[in-house]
Amino acid sequence: MLRRLKKPSRSAEEEFVHHRYERISIDTPRHRIVGTATLASDGYRSRLSDLLNAPEREFIALTDATVTLLDTDPPEVAVHAFIAVHRHHVVFAVPIGSVEEPHSNGACA
């Protein structure tokens, strides 16, 4: 007797992992990068410090990012739908505030 497998109505990620989105500002020696990071909604990996200290991650992924070159006058600004920042380049990082959801079409505001 053959049985058909039922397709789950939601993905495994939606079922078990709940995310929240946080705007953060990261300063490197030459840049200020402001973007949206994806964090767990609670518990482990729900804080910016967890994201910065995760030993299994070398890069911090940000969406809707604005990159400002700090050593030019006037500062040069670039906007990116996605950027990955190597965590060893971070001088300091601060949370700016929560956002409901990042832009879904890849466009930056």
Plain-language structure description:
It is a single chain. By secondary structure, the protein is mainly beta. It has one domain: SH3 type barrels (Roll). It is 10% helix and 45% strand. The chain contains two helices and five strands. A five-stranded antiparallel sheet has the order 4-3-2-1-5. The termini are far apart.
In short, what is this structure?
With 109 residues, this protein is mainly β. Helices cover 10% and strands 45% of the residues. It has helices spanning 12-16, 48-53, and strands at residues 19-27, 31-40, 59-69, 76-86, 92-99.
Key words describing this protein structure:
elongated; 5-stranded antiparallel sheet; 109 residues; mainly beta; 5 strands; SH3 type barrels; 45% strand; 2 helices; 10% helix
Kindly report the spatial arrangement of strands forming the biggest sheet: 4-3-2-1-5
The count of β-strands is 5
- Counting structural domains, the number is 1
Q: How far is the N terminus from the C terminus? A: 55 Å
CA radius of gyration is: 17 Å
